[in-house]
């Protein structure tokens, strides 16, 4: 683990962090589940969008020419939701240490919270996505972890526990809940270093549990199990039992963590694509029931030409 200087913590999220080389990337990620368990949210702000077919087709040239803010609103108790991700060119990116904007949407760090203003068009059926998200940190860390063996990919759990308030005009929706905020960065395409990974986060009382299980292209499988205390202290913990979940519609193998008598249970699969799955899970950690946000990424699938050819239908690009 590498400790970061204070100006790289959420108290200064550093939206001007460097983006290394061809195929390089950085993203800031936010998720939340409403207090009543009915709604969910994910947001990812990209420079060098790692899932972009346009970035891959360019030969991984110029990450700043492949930027996007991805927003997904979910219903955990039934059908419905909104999803938007429009890729834009470098001249549509505006960033400073505390401000990040791609096209009409932006993130702003005020010193005590992150305020996100969203104005996007959903796909594949066009509809407006307009509203505001506020993330108020409750637990912050300055921890950073290398995900690969060569130190080319890193993960920073900036605010693993936060309160999130959502207020949207389109759709007409407001709720509050527990949330999470982190950042990933790399100096090469994800698929060059990794075959697949499983990630999860869960709030357990005053503590949090974070899981990152990565299969490298070369070298051993690398699993990180973290406990984050209410004061922001991060410690590595002994491995939690990892078991398979039901495969997704597209045949993605998922694994998650539980130390209860039964494996984790899928509450709802929120994203089900040929290469990626996001799920809300119910699990038990140290005897306590938790709701876990979980993702599985299969990079062998992502780099298949047929899969890349499908992505523009969900991830259009503005060329002007």
Model description:
- With 320 residues, the protein is mainly beta.
- It has a single domain, classed as AttH-like fold, CATH 2.40.370.
- Helices cover 6% and strands 53% of the residues.
- It has 4 helices and 22 strands.
- The strands form 3 sheets. Strands 1, 2, 3, 4, 5, 6, 7, 8, 9, 10, 11, 12 and 13 form a 13-stranded antiparallel beta sheet that branches.
- A hairpin with a 6-residue loop joins β9 and β10.
- The radius of gyration is 18 Å and the shape is globular.
Number of domains: 1
The whole-number mean of residue pLDDT values reads 92
**What structural class do helix, strand and pairing data support?**
mainly beta
Regions with little confidence, pLDDT below 50 for 5+ residues: 1-10
CATH level-two architecture: Beta Barrel
Quaternary structure: single chain
Overall helicity: under 10%
CATH class: Mainly Beta
Please state the CA-atom Rg, rounded to the nearest Å. 18 Å
* Strand coverage percent: over 45%
Please give the largest β-sheet. 13 strands, antiparallel
* Strand and helix order: EEEHEEEEEEEEEEHEEEEEEEEEHH
- Count of alpha and pi helical runs: 4
| CATH-derived topology | AttH-like fold
């Amino acid at each position: 683990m590498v400790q970061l200087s204070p100006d790289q913590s959420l108290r200064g999220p550093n939206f001007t962090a460097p983006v290394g080389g061809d195929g390089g990337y950085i993203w800031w990620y936010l998720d939340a589940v409403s207090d009543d368990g009915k709604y969910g949210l994910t947001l990812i702000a990209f420079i060098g969008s790692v899932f972009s077919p346009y970035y891959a087709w360019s030969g991984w040239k110029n990450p700043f020419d492949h930027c996007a803010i991805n927003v997904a609103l979910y219903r955990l108790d039934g059908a419905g939701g909104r999803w938007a991700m429009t890729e834009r060119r470098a001249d549509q990116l505006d960033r400073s240490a505390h401000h990040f904007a791609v096209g009409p949407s932006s993130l702003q760090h005020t010193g005590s919270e992150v305020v996100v203003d969203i104005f996007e068009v959903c796909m594949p059926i066009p509809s407006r996505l307009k509203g505001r998200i506020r993330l108020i940190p409750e637990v912050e860390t300055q921890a950073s972890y290398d995900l690969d063996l060569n130190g080319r990919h890193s993960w920073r759990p900036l605010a693993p526990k936060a309160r999130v308030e959502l207020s949207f005009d389109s759709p007409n929706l407001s709720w509050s809940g527990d949330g999470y905020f982190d950042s990933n960065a790399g100096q090469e395409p994800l698929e060059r270093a990794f075959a697949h990974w499983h990630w999860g986060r869960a709030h357990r009382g005053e503590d949090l549990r974070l899981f990152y299980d990565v299969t490298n292209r070369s070298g051993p499988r690398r699993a990180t199990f973290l406990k984050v205390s209410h004061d922001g202290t991060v410690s590595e913990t002994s491995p939690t039992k990892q078991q398979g979940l039901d495969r997704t519609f597209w045949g993605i193998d998922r694994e998650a963590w539980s130390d209860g008598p039964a494996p984790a249970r899928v509450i709802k699969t929120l994203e089900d694509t040929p290469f990626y799955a996001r799920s809300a899970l119910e699990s038990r950690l140290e005897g306590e029931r938790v709701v876990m946000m979980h993702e599985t990424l299969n990079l062998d699938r992502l780099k298949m030409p047929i899969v890349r050819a499908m992505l523009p239908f969900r991830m259009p690009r503005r060329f002007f």
